Amino acid sequence: AQSVTQLDSQVPVFEEAPVELRCNYSSSVSVYLFWYVQYPNQGLQLLLKYLSGSTLVESINGFEAEFNKSQTSFHLRKPSVHISDTAEYFCAVSDSSGNTPLVFGKGTRLSVIA
Amino acid sequence: NAGVTQTPKFRVLKTGQSMTLLCAQDMNHEYMYWYRQDPGMGLRLIHYSVGEGTTAKGEVPDGYNVSRLKKQNFLLGLESAAPSQTSVYFCASKDRERGANVLTFGAGSRLTVL
Predict the structure, then answer these.
(1) Cβ separation of B43 and A46 shorter than 8 Å?
(2) I want to staple B29 with a disulfide (CB 3.0 to 4.6 A). Which of A9, A62, A108, B93 is the partner?
(3) B71-114, pLDDT tens digit by residue?
(4) Does A1 touch chain B (CB under 8 A)?
(5) First CA to last CA across chain B, in angstroms?
(6) HEC profile for chain B?
(7) Where are the beta strands (DSSP E) in chain A?
(8) Which of A43, A98, A101 is the closest to B90 by Cβ?
(9) pLDDT tens digit string along B58-69?
(10) Positive or negative, the Cα torsion across A58, A71, A18, A33?
(11) B39 to chain A: nearest residue by CA?
(12) Handedness of CA A20, B105, B75, B21 (dihedral sign)
């Protein structure tokens, strides 16, 4: 079975500052890794995913995450945040069959301060 | 193309009452899921289905039942509601062949049990 630990429950950051949201996972088999974002009063939507290949993956709105197998991590980064990035971010893991249900972390609430 | 639609969006129940949450998807997805979201707990899987007529238990199935009589619908039932079931419930779906674990989420159903 897989598990996910998001090390920070809340991260306040000033606008245009860089941010890193930390995620560590545990698994005895190969994994798929995901970041989902939840804007206020909405459902979750996929931000980015690692399935295979390049360990650095990017989203269309400037976020990136790097799969680090040796450290079992998949931290999310953005070099300069905007007010509109205020949301809750969930790291998730599944085995690499892609057919077992996703396991989510407890979430990190990112608050961007003007 | 509506994606995943959940009804109702809000509901207040008294302890012991029963109700059903409906999830409908129009993407012809094979897999469907019910999660609950609680503060500080992230998303926890209640039940899921890998195809019409099949269901399976997730992490927190007690007190809930589900049915998948039609491919496009996944129903979540509470036979005797308890205050501990106060939560926001999310339905999600994915395509078996191309989905990896990329889920499409509904907007959520907020349930309060008094």
Answers:
(1) no
(2) B93
(3) 999 999 999 999 999 999 999 999 876 667 789 999 999 999 99
(4) no
(5) 36
(6) CCCEEEECCEEEECCCCCEEEEEEECCCCCEEEEEEEECCCEEEEEEEECCCCCCEECCCCCCCEEECCCCCEEEEEECCCCHHHCEEEEEEEECCCCCCCCCEECCCEEEEEC
(7) 3-6, 10-14, 19-21, 23-26, 31-38, 44-50, 56-58, 64-68, 73-78, 87-95, 103-104, 108-113
(8) A43
(9) 999 999 999 999
(10) positive
(11) A106
(12) positive
Is the separation of the CB atoms in A25 and A7 below 8 Å? no
Report chain B residues whose CB lies below 8 A from the CB of A98.
99-101
User: A98 and B101: CB-CB below 8 Å?
Assistant: yes
pLDDT digits (tens, 9 = 90+) for A50-77: 998 889 999 988 999 999 999 999 999 9
Which residues of chain B make contact with A44, given a CB cutoff of 8 A? 43, 90, 92, 103, 105
Residues facing residue A25 across a β-bridge: A4
Mean pLDDT, to the nearest integer, of B28-51?
A: 94
In A, which residues are within 8 Å of B35 by CB distance?
Answer: 104
Q: Tokens 């500080």, residue? A: B40
User: Residue type for A35, please?
Assistant: W
Q: Is the separation of the CB atoms in B89 and B9 below 8 Å?
A: no
The alpha carbon of A8 is separated from its chain's Cα centroid by a whole number of angstroms, namely 12
- Nearest residue on chain B to A95, alpha-carbon basis: B101
C-alpha to C-alpha distance for B48 and B36, rounded to whole angstroms: 12
